[in-house]
Amino acid sequence: MIAPALARVFVVDDDSSVRKGLSRLITKAGYETETFNSVRDFLARPSYDGPSCLVLDVRMPGLTGLDLQEALRAAGRRLAIVFITGWGDVRASVAAMKGGAVDFLTKPLDEGTLLAAVKQAVARTLAERRELARVTEVRQRISTLTPREAEVFALVVTGMLNKQIGDRLGIVEKTVKVHRARVMEKMQADSLAALVRLAGTGGVIAARL
Amino acid sequence: MLSLLSLPEHASPGRRVLLVALLALLCCASSSPARELKPARIVVLLYPEARLLPEILAVEDAIRPTLDPEGSVNLYTEYLDLGRVSDGQYERQVIAFLREKYGKQRIDLIMPVALPTLRFFLKHRAALFPGVPAVFCAANLDGTGLELGSRITGVQLPSAWGATLDAALALQPGTRRAVVITGTSEIDQAMRAAAARDLARYHGRVAVDHLAGLPITRVLDQVATLPKDSIVLFVSLLRDEGGRLFTDPEAVSLIARASSVPVYGWSETHLGHGIVGGRLASFERQGTRAGELAVRVLRGEQPETLPVVNVGGAAYMFDDRQLRRWGLSASRLPAGSVVRFEEATLWSLYRWNIVGAGALVAALALLSTGLLVERTGRRRAELSLGERLRFETLLAEQAATFSRVSGADVDREIERALRRISDFLAVDWSGLTEYSEDSQTARVTHGWMAEGVDPQPAALGFDEIPWSVTQLRRGATVRFTRIEDLPASEAAVDRQTYRRLGVKSQVAIPLTVEGVVIGALAFGAVGAERAWRDEFVQRLQLLGEVFANTLARRRAEMEGQRLRGDLAHVGRVATVGELTASLAHELNQPLTAILANAQTARRLLESENADLTELRAIVGDIVDDDKRASDVINRLRSLLKKGPLERSRVDMSEVVGQVAHLAAGDAILRNVATRLELASDLPPVHGDRVQLQQVVLNLILNGLDAMRSSEAGHRTLVLRATRADAATVEVAVQDSGTGIEKSVLDHIFDPFYTTKADGLGMGLAIVRSIVEAHGGRVSAANNPEGGATFSFTLPVATEQP
Known about the structure:
Chain A is α/β, with parallel strands linked by helices. Chain A is 56% helix and 12% strand. Chain B folds into four domains: 41-156, Response regulator (Rossmann fold); 161-280 and 313-340, Response regulator (Rossmann fold), CATH 3.40.50; 405-557, 2-Layer Sandwich (Beta-Lactamase); 647-801, Heat Shock Protein 90.
């Protein structure tokens, strides 16, 4: 097996021969494939949570591949895209890459290039989803903090000592210690270093204070 | 959140004092320390409508400065929309809302405006505003039997229809009938009752007919056919039977335009909208007098000691243009009448002087010109409320127009807007200039000039108006009534230039796109000096923003088109000319499938136990895709082929279908939806297949080009092959592009005639020569729904050649 087991590749192209040929090639390389002849058909499919990626034609009648990229982005769906096009359209390729595409390949597609891009795209989809899950988890933990604890959290991770934090917040050092312990517990951090990392992942702390 | 006020406990005493002082300063900064602090007085203005009627604006414009010259009063306004009070639930909600909003505040004064509001206020006063004094205005209490009660005074607006009818009878002695127009709103009905009372005493002399509670269309029909011995009295039409809402100026304009006889009104807000005139009330005076009473009540005088003031029809006012329209003699107007909108001429004003005193003629003419100029100037400065509103409406229309105007129409719409606004402002010229850094000039891109005004130069160097350009580039508006208003030394060069050009007065507004001043919008006078009022300049600045946004949008659109155009052009110059992009698409699809299939097959062959069935299927697909690719090549080859004509029987449906297929990629690239309407039983024509393909291809490419500037999503190309009659086949290519200008239509098939920047002008000429060589005819026409249709006919082939 070259590819991770059970990764699924969605092929969207308006040309039936192309769909058939690509899906054969990708299936033989060890992926599951699903084909769609238009952007609308793909959007009608329920979103898929497993490892996956999208092989997407740029130019199609009706909604284009770039439209789909935009729609997925707007819907917050993380799905890495390999664009394929019959014509080296510079502007479309710039737009696609700016929009976060893994690659932009010109037809006819070389087997090696295509499969490398697909492999990379599946890996990226997975990584992005893991990252998203991690951030969501940390934010969820942050949301359990009381406003006072959030303040203490924000100051602790800047490296302030308990006494300084107490002065800043107008509370005694002992109270700061209690809050700090609660923060460590709620954030499930076993050290200050871990807490600082969590603050970075959460990304919202600096913005909130 | 971290509190600003928590002081660090270990702060040194000195620092702490400083901090406290700073905080104290912060707290005081919002109020002026010099003046003794008195709590602001709270006054609530109640209006009957949900709309900003011109009358309401006039009242409020007058009340505010009278009531509150120092800014020590908090003025609240409520638009009660009393027309809906017959709906009990709405009334309860309004009361609950007012109680919620004002219940806990100490209100110093209530000011109900107009009769329905006063009624509402008196009905709910005890519950809503117990003990709060009140000053009403713009209400006519006559005949209403309304009990005012205590702690209230105000300004009455008695109707003056008697006075107006007297004046009308003097102007039109033959009048036998007065048609009174009213609508269905609360105010309309109250005013109808009051007018009926006023007119009752003319019983026997003038018949009074009421056009009340009709839809506006019926009202307009009726007034259009009134006999000559009638007049129309416009009383009030805030809402018609159909529920349509009007302001008085709107309703007056409609009715006066339709009416077959003169229309009289009762308010200054009607004048200038088509009424002849009448004894007209001034809402401004209503507001001023009410404001004066309010000031006295706020100072502690008891409302009971202040008698209700009557400010009725303030003056006889007439519209000179309407007097002329109906042939009414100004000499019959009541003494002291004010005549507005006079088109004064030297002759009419000073003819006796001119005729009588030969030697003085020149001197008087000079003097009277001066007077005239001053007079016109003043009239312009004293624009009535109605005109202000019309100006607002005009600008709002422009803003609406420009928000949806597309790239191609921008120039036309800007010129139209300039014309309309210049007409309104009675300026001599107006224009948009664009700054060019390369040539250091301000170039006029759009301009308008009144008739008889010398053309302004097409461009001015920055060095000719350096001060003005500097000001405008800073975003400042440059305006002067006379050239001397410009700073003497800094703007010396500007002064010189304006003098040379004969500019007397000018206002120029910077056009800013993304923070950069790209040019200016200017209005100027060359005939006489004129003042530019702040309120107009502010409105014109808004217009400047509208223009700037529109130009910015067009720039962006053009940039996008140019990029697309460049790409298309790159494709064009390649070997097979116009079809490269399309061919790439057409060929790449089968090639992609072939390659993918071949590589899959190789993988299969490399594996231990190759599935022969699958391999067979794959190879079959490869063969099919290869055939598809060679079809594309063949179609192309037949197009490019040169050689002797090969006449044969040709099915035009088939030809159109083939060529459409070939151009499909081009259509997709350009976001064009293609529709085929091909008759399946078309009789064959006799001709050269390749040449006929060429004709169809040229028409398709022409259609695609025509839609370059159409909105994406609205680009449709319809290809038709039909039987026109027994002996003729017709092929038509219909686009949804910009259509063809009339002047172009006659030449469109001529060789080297082109409207495209990059066109050779040969495509359509080739079409014509081929079609005519086949005994057919070409034609082009605009579609009623937009775009153009190019078509050609060919004779049906005879049985056997």
